[in-house]
Write a structure and sequence with these properties.
two-stranded antiparallel ribbon; globular; mainly alpha
Length: 423
């Protein structure tokens, strides 16, 4: 909203300083500042309201050190995160941008699903919360919206390079014209076109078209590629949102990990939406995705601001209201900037946490069937799943576990950035 106000002031009245709102970097900085202010100033008020409403966490007896002390800690703190993302985005982003619209829909959609789950747990006293099939239906519904928008919308386009870039072009090596005027050779791109091309990490010509998966259909491949693309989008959104949900088990783990992932996605969005950096890095240029930097800046600020109250010992838990939304935002963002195949690296912590649960169940069922229930119980793959609880069972303090998981997340994030040049 402020973008439109100051653009109007700049165009019609030449208002001093109003033109700065045209710059993505400035608006991103303002978004992260505002999201931090909202988290810090209004977070305490929301926590007090949750306490008055007796919105406390019911902790299962898991035999973990310090777990019982968390009984009664306010949950549904994801409301802090959601407000700190949505408000700065509405203030500083261009709201007609298709990618911003998708991100806002994702935030609200999964926030509502998570809120319903927390509401049932807290107020209906049903520990199971919203039934799993309804959660999956909500995630599938969002996947359909995102997949159909990215596939059918005329606003979703890419530009592919005709000639390879050189470092000289990036460094603005210039030619001197006959009149002594400096000229810069621009990167050569195709016209904007609708495409399902995405990025493959660690590959020299690192672009892959989903329509290639249905190439056996011949000339009709492009027309039917949505049969592959939309299910993949649904799977990614469901997997990553559930991964964030599973990771949200100890103080500060999900919020801190999400903030690290947000920084990486912000870098990738900026270079993908900037012709100069896309040219130098020899990556796909995606028009209008630079605007996503404002959204992800608000996302990072919201996660960091929430850590003020969620770091050990937590004063509030985000609940499914926050964790489902965080995972869904990360998934949709990565898909929008054509970096979804980097998710196993960027979201490595989420992936490992998810896999630890799946492997624990699979191994238990196998050993139960082959050796009996007593053997299966005595010889579990992990002492407890998800993985962070395994380390708690081994005696590590949760703050140490969180710190180490953050370090792993940072290492994976650096690796993801390195893939821009490591091919």
């Amino acid at each position: 909203m402020l973008y439109y106000l100051f653009t109007w002031l700049d165009n019609d009245f030449d208002f001093p300083g109003a033109g700065v709102f045209r710059y993505i970097s400035f608006r991103a900085a303002m978004a992260i500042i505002f999201s931090l202010i909202i988290s810090l100033l209004f977070g305490k008020r929301i926590i007090n309201i949750l306490r008055r409403k007796q919105v406390g966490e019911t902790v299962r007896e898991l035999g973990l050190a310090g777990q019982k002390e968390k009984e009664g800690t306010p949950t549904m703190g994801g409301l802090i995160i959601l407000s700190a993302i949505i408000i700065p985005t509405l203030l500083f982003a261009r709201l007609e941008n298709v990618y911003i619209i998708l991100m806002l829909i994702t935030t609200v959609w999964l926030g509502i699903i998570g809120f319903l789950d927390d509401y049932i747990k807290v107020f209906k006293k049903d520990k199971q919360g919203l039934h799993g099939r309804f959660k999956v239906m909500g995630q599938v519904g969002l996947g359909l919206i995102v997949g159909c928008t990215l596939y059918f919308s005329d606003a979703v386009v890419v530009k592919e390079k005709i000639a390879p870039a050189t470092a000289d072009q990036f460094n603005l090596t210039q030619d001197i014209g006959s009149a002594g005027v400096t000229t810069i050779t621009p990167a050569q791109y195709t016209e904007e076109k609708h495409s399902l091309v995405t990025t493959i990490p660690f590959v020299k010509n690192n672009e892959f078209d989903y329509s290639d998966l249905v190439c056996f259909l011949g000339d009709k491949a492009c027309e039917w590629s949505w049969l592959i693309f939309i299910p993949i989008v649904i799977f990614i959104i469901t997997a990553v949102s559930n991964g964030a949900n599973v990771t949200d088990g100890i103080d500060g783990l999900a919020a801190g990990t999400s903030a690290i992932i947000g920084v990486i996605l912000g870098v990738l969005a900026y270079v993908s939406g900037n012709t100069i950096f896309a040219d130098y890095l020899n990556i796909m240029y995606i028009p209008d995705t630079g605007e996503l930097v404002i959204f992800i800046a608000a996302f990072i600020g919201a996660c960091v601001g929430f850590l003020w109250y969620n770091s050990f010992p937590a004063q509030v838990f985000m609940g499914d209201t926050g964790s489902l939304a965080l995972g869904g935002i990360i998934a949709v963002f990565a898909i929008a900037i054509r970096k979804e195949l980097l998710i196993p690296i960027i979201c490595g912590v989420f992936l490992v946490e998810n896999l630890s649960v799946v492997l624990q169940v699979m191994v238990f069922k196998y050993r139960k069937k082959k050796y009996g229930i007593d053997y299966a119980k005595a010889n579990r793959l992990f002492l407890m799943s998800p993985l962070h609880h395994h380390y708690q069972k081994k005696g590590l303090h949760e703050s140490k576990i969180v710190s180490r998981f953050w370090i792993v997340g940072i290492m994976l994030g650096v690796l993801a950035i390195v893939t821009l040049k490591l091919r």
